[in-house]
Please model this.
Amino acid sequence: MYQSPYPSIEIPDTPLVPYVFQRAAALADKPALICGASGRQLTYGQLEKAIRQVACGLHAHGIRKGDVVGLVCPNVPDFAVVFYAVTTLGAICSTVNPIATAEEIGAQFADSEAVMLVTIPDLFEKCSAAARLASTVREIVVMGEVDGSTPYATLFTHGDAPPHVDINPAVDVCVLPYSSGTSGIPKGVMLTHRNLVANLAQCSAVGVGVNEQDVLLGVLPFFHIYGMVVIMGGALVQGATIVSLPRFELEQFLSVIQTRRITYANLVPPIVLALAKHPLVASYDLSSLRMILSGAAPLGAELADACAARLGCMVRQGYGLTETSPVTHFHPLESDVVDGGSVGPAIANTECRLVDPATSDDVAEGERGELWIRGPQVMKGYFNKPEATAACMTDDGWFKTGDVAVIDGRGWYSIVDRVKELIKYKGLQVAPAELEAVLLSNPLIADVAVIPVPDVEAGEVPKAFVVARGELSADQVMAFVAERVSPYKKVRQVEFVEAIPKSPSGKILRRLLVDRERAKQQS
Ligand code: 4UW
Model:
């Protein structure tokens, strides 16, 4: 077992909102969130007041402690208003990718038993279709005015003193993002107020480096744990300013860095790649950037160095998972040893084990093992899925990440492989089991297995091995999936095979396919 090298900290015993907004009153006139596309801006004072007003409005519309409210919204300043208003009431915010299909959104909110959805006008129709699949949803609130929905503005008409709600930070669930974990389809990850407060406090304690003077770029989606906690929460708790962008588009992204004088950018490896290599980058003044933080997928040392050299700024890497709120490892800022391929040591209050997944025994020092984590940021469990929870959490509090890591002499970790099923497309989760279920709904497909294959731009893309029952082309297989899933989940390679390798118990031997694919790439 390895302890964090950092001194332990006391985790504040408080719900999320008072923790995040502890400095809001002192910074009342300072911009907290600015929309990089529209220019709409909320100061800390306006943001804090809007959160209180919307909490009152949600309460007037029947939202109570423990209710799940679904948020289907791109990165706009009001995302933060709704998110923190819901949690103010002790209700639970479940976020989803706004580009998800109606079926995907419906499936998440049926599973989470959401009672209300909050969205934007452009997504209203999709959310209505989703709500027909999720029978618990009784109201859709739209940030604008659309027939058949509750206008967001009406939530602001019920005063600004929300009722006091008793929240037990260690027990009460605060957010419910979805993750497929080590296998299967996406599951609701129950993160408590304490989980999120702990992770923000742990990050501050190890000097993740955001300070009040920083202007952060909020281009990664706030619905995902990285945007939700590391960017949105991490910036607001420090009193920094976030410039949000509803989507990534290279020219707009570069222009916003230049005009808004962005100092700190939280990114994923495909965007770091663009910054390191794309010719357009040379046309912009990006000299305000002092720090780029990458996470959600592996960042190679060479790419980190190339980006740092071209832009003249620090490039550091963090690691973690939705199930760990998310941060567990962070590459120190102050270290002169820059090792872009490493995720650094475990952050404060975080214990690690490296384990042989077959035996659950710790591996010998210096060997690769599955990374297990214990700490205050580890989730309470999956919502309504005790078996899935038991499969990845031990009775004594260890969470099995499904990632394979090594630790070096300094106590720094590198993530070197994955034993779980997950595919990471540009840092976003794609669950092989979900794509396999879609493919098996095609009568011309007898059997299938989906695995990740490496891709220079996206990191990984899904590849399907298909046993066909009749005439079927690879293009038809890809089109069949593309019509039924979010664009980022598309199957991008297909290979027809005679049979899918399976264990005697019928489990797909994915590892065999992954290893075969790797051998092919190397030959
Ligand atoms: N290197 C290799 C990495 C890395 C990685 C994540 O969608 P989820 O559940 O969660 C995330 C979390 C992103 C994140 C965590 C901590 C942090 O500091 C930060 O900002 C810098 C971002 O994406 O996917 C979790 C899975 O993503 C892979 C890994 O397989 C993990 O189990 N992953 N970060 N640096 N792989």
Summary: Residues 179, 225-226, 230, 293-298, 317-322, 326-327, 330, 343, 401-403, 415, 418, 422, 424, 427, 429 surround 4UW (CB under 6 Å). The longest strand covers residues 445-455. DSSP finds 14 helices and 26 strands in the chain. Residues 44-60 form the longest helix (17 residues).
